[in-house]
Amino acid sequence: MADPPVDDLAARICAVQAGSIVAAAGCGKTEQIVNATVQSQGRRLILTHTHAGVDALRKRMREKGVSTSQYAIDTIAGWCLRYAAAYPLRSGLKVATPKGDQDWTAVYAGAIALLESGAVTQVLEASYCGVFVDEYQDCGGAQHQVIAALSEVLPVCVFGDPLQAIFDFGQTPVDWRSEVFSQFPKLSTLTKPWRWHRHGNADMANWLETVRPVLEAGQALDLAGRPACVTWEWLPDQDGPRQSKIISTCLKAMKGDGNLAVIADPANLNGRALIAKKLGRQGFSNIEPIECKTVYAAAKKLAATSGSKRLVALLTFLEQCMSGVAQGEFLKAVASRKAGGKLGRAKFGDLVELGLTIDQGAGDEVCLALIEGFAAQAKTFVFRREMLFSMRSALRMKVAGDAADLSDALWQVQTKIRHAGRQIPYYSVGSTLLVKGLEFANVVVIHSANMNNKDWYVALTRATHRLTILSPKSVIAPGFA
Amino acid sequence: MRIVRVEIQNFRGIGTLDWHPSPGMNCLIGPGDSTKTTILDAIELALNPRSNYLGDDTDFHNLNFDLPVRVTVTLVGIPAEFCVDTRYGLYLRGWDETAARLVDEPGDGLLEALSVRVEIDPSTLEGRWAIYNDRLAGDVDPPSLRYKDALQLATTRLGPYAERHLGWGRQSILNRIGEGGRMSEQLASASRAARAAFKTSNKDVFAIPTARAEKLGKHFSVRVREAFTAELDVQGSAITSGGVVLHDGDLPLRTLGTGSSRLIVSALQHNAGGSHIALVDEIEHGLEPHRIARLLKYLRNPPALEGDAATPGAAAPQTFLTTHSNVVIRELDARDIHAVRSHEGRTQVRSVEQTAETPEVAQRQLRASPEAFLAQRIVIGEGRTECGLLRGLDACWIAEGKDSFALRGVAAIDGGGVPNAVTLTQSLLDLGYECLALLDSDKPPSRDSVAKVEAIGGVVLEWGDDCSTEERIFRDVPWATVDALVGLAIQCNTEDSVRTTLRATCKARKIAEPADLPLPASFDTPQHRAALGFTAREKSWFKTIPRGERLAVLVYPCLEDISATPLAKHLSRLRAWVDG
After folding, report:
1. Is the same domain home to B515 and B486?
2. ipTM rounded to 2 decimals
3. Which of A271, A273, B133, B471 could pair with B533 in a Cys bridge, judged by C-beta atoms 3.0 to 4.6 Å apart?
4. How confident is the model at residue A167 (pLDDT cuts 50, 70, 90)?
5. Interface of B with A (CB under 8 A)
6. What percentage of chain B carries pLDDT values higher than 90?
7. By three-state DSSP, how is residue A232 classified?
8. Residue A438 in contact with partner chain B when CB distance is under 8 A
9. Which DSSP string do the residues of B477-505 spell out, in sequence order?
């Protein structure tokens, strides 16, 4: 054959009526999508899950010089909403701006009803020559049904990796063996880890290639065969030593070039926050889930309280976000000021005055001022930057009268973040759910019993250059999912 | 592409209109001021968006500025690229062809439809074009129609005069055919050639002023670089596309007669490609009947040109035309013809075919009396005798100085006997015509059908006494007129046949048989009058339209003398209706 095999695959992807590509991490999945889009006769609909994913795909298309008339990129949710809302009679969709999970379930159901009604068949045929779906492992059942309904009208090829299917608690992923492959027969598996070869890290590439089948089979992974760029260190059991080992390892890992992510217990947000807090002075910060429950709870409390209770709620929230707040000391300073004293004046300065006005019933404007005052203090280190940012923006919106209440403002802020894409801190602490799809120069993986084989595969494939693994044993035996 | 629904609100003569046109030909007929042309104008306005369009006060119905002018045109068979989701794919509607119903969203068994709406704002008079559907209702900023897409919707209009399409000026149909790109190049070089030719020509006439200017210039120290000459001005002599027109040899085509140029332009319009919608004003304008027929045939089924991609069997283009010509009506099918009526600002368009009992009936009526469909009011004579009688009476009334039927917007037609005459009256009433039916009573129509006609405003005149028209006349006229009528019967038939048939009737009725004609006064008995009437009818003495007309000439003079008779009473009611 004259054509190189890679291009041949792109041609097959273009031609397939219904198919799937399994792509191991860093194996050129996006590249394939771009190449197949270039070869497509007509406009290709490319769906993915997150706005960040949309942006990344768009960027790659631009870099490759693909004309925007060749493709349309959207999130599955966004696309479903656009279509279902355009034809409410056929979709049965009632909400125009879905907020919670329930609304989104209705959006997917609406999109399925619309597609099955045949009302948009001509529109789809006129609009697209076919559909690619990226990160298919992140699809839930409803999303899979949408794509299946789409494939009744248009050729569909899905891309993903069942081994990277990581879900939040309570979500059920689509099952590849019983659901995906039956609908979209496997066309090919991409196994060559191009990403590390591109970074000149052939050792890591080769090692990861051997790691994958072990984890895929749910076997124990012996780190004995690791290359030099992968470090393993023993993680003590007891809390104290364990914590100090983590901190010292992170500090060591910071010395490597480039950014750093610490991947820790997926089930313990507070545990992760604690690591960030300890390293706040060094500029570590948490990667927050976008729909962060902590901030919602804080907002609710702020909205429900007033006076001294409100001041306490606000300070408690601030302590969750930054170190150096010293709630007790501050409250004493406020009490002293109330009585005409000058206690804590030197440490907190004008903040005491603000605290007092809140204590005496001041509103959101003063709360905002106090948050900003604390954030600006030299001795405070913010380790949950996203959470603080969300609250600050929400309060600002509320003060400006752009939102009915604080929860609504928060929702608006988070929607904006979802669209604009979040800023990942240079030194960050997160879980596999929060770092999937991202890459970092340096990664520290902290063993946790809550990590299964998929978590481990995702964790081990995030570092481009140096990987440090902290675990009780050098043989890792994760649960099989 | 074709229009399936036209909705008009507050536009010129039309307060409201909601109409589902037919796929092919839509020939609009109706009396003057029934807003036929306004419908064409509205369609043209909606499908030809212009930037900076300004309407004027008269665009508003009854100068009502409380409401915007609003025209909504719904199309099916739209180009596939319109259905792309980034264009209009998410604003489509569904058209149910069998039920002639618009659903706001497409769906199973529905055709994808797109509605385009233009609104003229009463305060600014600005025209705004946008996509419309019920989901977008109330949207302050509905999606607009792209300029490029609007070009695909553009209608062609064949107005009374077509000259502008015979040159390459703005909006000429010629610009839509072939490659326009190289034209400016060609024109620029023609301009240059003209300047060059002028340069080398003998410019004696310009010599003196030129020399004077140069001399005076030097006098005032104006620097002369070479020498002053007279040349064609680049701007003044630029040749524009509007200056290029079609010629036949040396003769510009615009010198053709109105009809010929309209024919050529119409053909060009249909050949310009695309599945466009054609609007034609007064299609008969400037054309002899045979050329009308040919143009109509062409419009209904334009032949594909050589090398044209048009697929055989493709739907004929949709055409909207107005006419006042019975030639046009006779040439068309019932399904092509739509009656337009306007009543207190409410315009209604009804299909002739769908209003009739069956398509065949509609077709027969059109062929039989096309002119009736152009009138406002119609008198239906039951058969040929009655029709002739009516027309003859018209002539008599005119001679007496009364208004003619035509002046009163009335046409008299042959109803084709009972029960046809009644069903015809019924469907004409349904189409919006005012109708009076003049019926025999010897074979009376069913009471039901008469009641139905009367219920929707029709007037039915029946002779009564189980009389046919002939029997009524022979019964009611003075004996002298009876004499004259017998004379007419002899003229129309033969003396022999009239006598023989009359004798046969008398014999059958066991009354005295006349020996000879004319009848002596002794035969002036009710029985003999009845026998005369019966024989006249049975033997069709007067059963053609011209005979009926002559009948009227004889009967008319005596009407005043017999004003108490049913005959005279009915005819004066008829006259009153005509004058009403």
Report:
1. yes
2. 0.79
3. B471
4. confident
5. 80-86, 89-92, 94, 103-108, 110, 112, 135
6. 48
7. strand
8. no
9. S-HHHHHHHHHHHHHHS-HHHHHHHHHHH
